[in-house]
Amino acid sequence: MPFFPDEFQKIRGRGVASAPGNRFERHEIQIDWGAVEESAQADEDFDPPSLKTVVFRDESQSIISRNDSPDINFGASVNPYRGCEHGCAYCYARPFHEYLGFNAGIDFETKLMAKENAPELLRNELSKKSWKPQVLAMSGVTDCYQPVERKLKLTRGCLEVLVEFCNPVGIVTKNHLVTRDIDLLGELALKNAATVAISITSLDTNLQRSLEPRASTPRARLRAIRELANAGVPVGVSVAPIIPGLNEHEIPAILEAARDHGAKRGWYSVVRLPHGVKEMFADWLEYHFPDRKEKVLGRIRELRGGKLNSAEFGERMRGQGAWAGEIERLFKINLRRYELNREHLQLNTSDFRRPSGPQLEMPF
Fold first, then answer.
1. Closest alpha carbon to 154 in 190, 124, 113, 187
2. Which 3 state secondary structure label does DSSP give 77?
């Protein structure tokens, strides 16, 4: 796996500096960093290769993805973007980028695919007689409120469609940008058709900045919880991923802070490191926390039966063994302490309507 040399290891605003080969491709393009160094030494005005974000048009002809995994609580999701500029070092979705011919490292956070016709595709799907009203998850793979959404507004366009049809939605995000759409989320919430979970991995700004470089700060995420709650939008906190040896000790503080800002629910998952994410995350630890690297990786192996990852249903979200049990107990104790998850939230599908001219058509 090729890495950027030492002088390029810390790339401001990026989660990882590695450019691993694509496991589906026989050939790969590598930068000759020796030539880059020589050019930089010979020409003081030399501009090294750009790592700016590039957005490509995704011409997919469908927008709703189906899910039948027994340990995921939604059956259908909408993802306006592929790749994610947040650049989270641990992100389990990185390997999906390899299906597009990119790498799961720096490409995942700098080469994004945007489904520019996402709202139109969603309207077409919901208009079909075959669509059975159900909760649609947003950010099932990558964050629907990543920075590029501020400009493209594809998530907002999809929410406008969901308001039009009154189809319920559940959103998970680590970006304060979700509050921009409080008007639409509030309208859906009036009919019990919207819920938002704000993902908070750490309250330590320094850890968060290195772990999730382009996501909102912990303070901004807590502020988003308060703003959503004040607007009547049901909001919870997702403490995910929990990385043993790095952030599990923050569970009580995160749940308390989320409760104090208006969260009513909380849940968690442990870190997942599929395919090349294992090596990238280990490299991230080596750079940012070399003194903790072996401790963290050792505890992850304890969670994963001696490996760094397990894709087995039933354990991939929670892990197995003593450490998994300790994390679960700590989480449950603090859910009770801060009176979270006391009420079950069931989003409403009964108000779903298909617009048909000036009148509304019943779905059945």
1. 113
2. strand
Q: Is the pLDDT of residue 175 over 70?
A: yes
Average pLDDT, the chain: 88
**219 to 1, 246, 265: CA distances (angstroms):** 36, 19, 18
Structure tokens at 203: 């309250």
Report the pLDDT value the prediction gives residue 140, as an integer from 0 to 100.
Answer: 78
Check if the beta carbon of residue 77 is closer than 8 Å to that of residue 140: yes
Burial 191-229 (b: 16+ CB within 10 A, else e): ebbbbbbbbbbbbeeebbebbbbbbbebeebbbbbbbbb
**Cα dihedral 82→2→282→309 (10° resolution):** 60
Q: Please give the Cα distance from 38 to 55 (Å, whole number).
A: 30
Residue that is written with structure tokens 């790095």 in the block: 246
**Which residue, 39, 54, 24, 53, is CA-closest to 276?**
24
pLDDT in tens, 106-124: 899 999 999 999 999 999 9
Q: What Cα–Cα distance (Å) separates residue 20 from each residue in 31, 222, 352? A: 12, 35, 45
Residue environment code for 64-75, b if the CB has 16+ CB neighbours within 10 A, otherwise e: beeeeeeeeebb
Burial readout 20-58 (b: 16 or more C-beta within 10 A, e: otherwise): bbbeeeeeeeeeebeebeeeeeeeeeeeeeebebebeeb
Helix (H, G, I), strand (E, B) or coil at 129: coil
Here the contacts of 353-358 (C-beta below 8 Å, separation 24 or greater) are 353/165, 353/166, 354/126, 354/127, 354/165, 355/164, 355/165
Q: How many CB atoms lie within 10 A of CB 163?
A: 19
pTM listed for this prediction: 0.88
